[in-house]
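User: I'm preparing a small set of examples for a lab meeting where we compare how different chains pack in three dimensions. I only have the primary sequence for this one, and I'd like the structure in token form so I can line it up with the others. Please keep the answer compact; I'll paste it straight into my notes.
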Amino acid sequence: MKVSSLVTLGLVAWSCGNPTGPSSTTTSVPPRPDLLMITPAIDGLKIGSTETLTAVVLSGDGTQRTVVASWSSDAPEVVAIGRDGRVRGASLGKTTIRAKFETLAQDRAIRVVPDYEGTWSGGYRIANCTWMSGPGPSYCKGLAGAVFPLKAVVTQSGDRLSGTLEFYTNTHDPFEAGPVEGAIDDSGALVLSGTISSVMSEQPGETRLSDWNTTLIGDADQMAGRFVRYPHFRNFWGWQESREDCEIVKVTRSRP
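Assistant: Understood. Below is the structure token output for the 256-residue chain.
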């Protein structure tokens, strides 16, 4: 037998009898810990409104179960919470809601915000109009100081809002309409944006709405503030573009 064959046989015998040779092992994965969750995941609560929170345990195997937790609020004068998880926006401000179940706990920060929901109507004054581009004379001449009617229908869920905005001519004929959406900022102001389309076939176009910032005044059924319109429309001369800096004028809310 050749020497090389003897060497090979010796290596095979050694590896089979060697207890420290390669072996296959399985590494166990530790189970994931249970987690406590608060549902629904609300961040904002409209003042005066209520919501029922639920505590849910997410087990390490991925299953979920609803549990009876104990509830507390860091600032009950802002958000009051009952033993059943029912919360109510009592006053404007911020607080932290805590749910506890056995050894588990979960916090959720909640902000109570002003109520902007409803139908608003009134007017807006064009404080300044800047013609940006387009053939023919500037249509902005004579618009500074003019007041036109508007109407807004706003739906609110916490600190998020959506709805429709309508603009009218000075003879109260429909002029533009379209969807808007936005939120309530840290100061409590309503911030909206959207694109409003012309409803007049003789003057097609659309207007981009920007920098809408309004707040509640008086008995909270009146709104004050400002916004900017960027009209892009076609008139007798051709397509026109401009900027209109506007101020809210006596926009009030209709109660059901």
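A couple of notes for your slides: The first strand starts at residue 35 and ends at 39. Residues 1-16 have pLDDT under 50 and may be disordered.

User: Perfect, thanks.
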